Amino acid sequence: MEKKLKIGIIFGGKSAEHEVSLQSAKNVIEALDPDKYEPVLIGIAKDGRWFLKERSSFLLNAADPKLISLDGGKAQGVSLAPQNGGQLSGPDSPHPVASVDVVFPILHGPFGEDGTIQGLLKLANVPFVGAGVLGSAVGMDKDVMKRLLRDAGIPIGKFMAVRESEVPDFAAVVASLGLPFFVKPANLGSSVGISKVRTAEEYAAAVSLAFRFDRKLVLEENIDGREIECSVLGNDQPIASVPGEVITGHDFYSYEAKYIDEHGAALQIPADLPEATVEMVRDLAVKTFRVTGCEGLGRIDFFLKGDGQVIVNEINTIPGFTSVSMYPKLWEASGIPYRELIDRLIQLALERFSREQRLVTSYTDK
Length: 366
Known about the structure:
Elements: E1 5-12, H1 18-31, E2 37-44, E3 50-53, E4 59-60, E5 69-70, E6 76-77, E7 79-80, E8 87-89, E9 96-99, E10 102-106, H2 116-124, H3 133-140, H4 142-151, E11 159-163, H5 170-177, E12 181-185, E13 195-197, H6 200-210, E14 216-221, E15 225-234, E16 239-240, E17 244-248, H7 255-260, E18 265-268, H8 275-291, E19 296-305, E20 310-316, H9 326-333, H10 338-357
Parallel strand pairs: 1-2, 1-10
Antiparallel strand pairs: 2-3, 3-6, 4-5, 7-8, 8-9, 11-14, 12-13, 12-14, 15-16, 15-17, 15-19, 17-18, 19-20
């Protein structure tokens, strides 16, 4: 019998998206083929500490998105060191306490989706699922992402990047973006810290809220259009799924609508679109994936305006894998069921790692 691959599932994290990560991890672990893979669960607490977790008890209140949390019970603390090939060490012992063959980082937001964990995994010389350091960092920073997309000729909405020392007044923002507009932390996802602004008072409150999560903000024009999403899979030759549509009863597709309110949004998969629009969305999804240096997986979010114009909103390099998440649902509708999707992501990680191992790292190497 072929040896099972040990898949290190890293989840939780020091991020405002910690709880979303827990929900995603639960689904991925359940989808792993037990005949092929042995999961090694690595939970990261909100203070950043790493722990080995038992599958039977790694989450509390797992069925309730409002109360879900990482089990704080006794667990083995672990760390990953450079060039150790996936060996996990305990804090008080130089000897390995576990090992992994491939890592599947399911960490949404800072310290997980922004290139931080990807850099550590590259230093440790272990294969991992998803974008590398550059693609992750670009995908996380909405300001840098939008600049790259704009320079590549990909249609995006109007935006402004803002730091604490240079917050423009309300009138200046309205003159540039119109009303209403959105205020977002530049480096966060899952709609955390986002506000829709219509008045000067709302603007002040929105800026204050967003600066709690990041040192840079992105202000975006409100685009009146349908919310369309498309999943991408692959490394050098990525493919796009059928598009889907998010239809929300909330003012916008907020954190509450995504993860808490079970009636907060309806997903129409596939989206009811003309064939020409479907192909345009899929083409722009792959172009966005490539321009941002993404690998493995990504979900690209769009606005479809009434005149048929398609606008790219953003790319998510570690999209949600919860029971209501669009990324796996779009692939299922495209003919790739959840378990096969996880298989493909792991194989893409191994393929990239094998290719990178052949690169010369010394000038004298022949």
